[in-house]
């Protein structure tokens, strides 16, 4: 089997490749992580379990939020690339697969999957990460057959306003957590006034924006301390706090132990 690549990676959110295009088909499966993905200039929120097929030549990229990671502060995804020539070669060698090839080639835009196909693809992709090259090639054919049952994404549908507002707020925090973020500023980012935003955010998340912001900052600080990359004072200022004593008290309330303990455990 030729003209395909398979990658199963775990990396920090900021290490994820940006928006790009390629001349191969791409099947992307997010195992751990969430954020916003761009497909053909359209932005949508995604969460763990996101699975999409992207035809050649379509700009795409995933922006992961850093607070949604595994215990090591990493996201995890599987990416399968395959060339159109692979589909042609398979159809020529095994005529029974011509319908599979024709169905996949009929997709002009991004493709999503129903529950049954999504569950099967997730199992097959995880299996491929453990297989030898020979067995992986066999499983690849099963993956391609399953892909033919996909459904074109309807980008004419309006996005969910609530989800989009929350994602705008979360992305803004992920880019600006190191500095003070006034309520009026974040409210303006999502197109609301201060009062409406505060009610909206608490209703949707169960916490105030300030509580969310501080929890986000403390989560990052804990990752840095447990990784041993920063001292307590460095983590305090790097995550957006400007008072070490207050940072330590807030950290203890959230984590159940002082930041010095997280730092010591990293040694």
Folded structure, characterized:
- Helix content is 48%, strand content 18%.
- The chain has 267 residues and is an alpha+beta fold.
- It has a 4-stranded antiparallel sheet with strand order 1-7-2-5. Strands 4-3-6 form a 3-stranded antiparallel sheet, covered by helices on one side. It has a two-stranded antiparallel sheet with strand order 8-9.
- Strand 3 and strand 4 (42-46) form a beta hairpin.
- The protein is elongated.
- The mean pLDDT is 88.
Rounded to an integer in angstroms, the radius of gyration calculated over CA atoms is 22 Å
The proportion of residues forming helix, as a percent range, comes to 40-55%
Number of helices: 11
Sequence stretches where pLDDT stays below 50 over 5 or more residues: none
Strand-residue proportion: 15-25%
Q: Shape, please? A: elongated
Mind summarizing the main beta sheet? 4 strands, antiparallel
Mean pLDDT: 88
Order of helices and strands: EEEEEEEHHEHHEHHHHHHH
How many β-strand runs?
9
Strand order of the largest sheet: 1-7-2-5
Terminal CA distance: 46 Å
Instruction: Give the structural class.
Output: alpha+beta
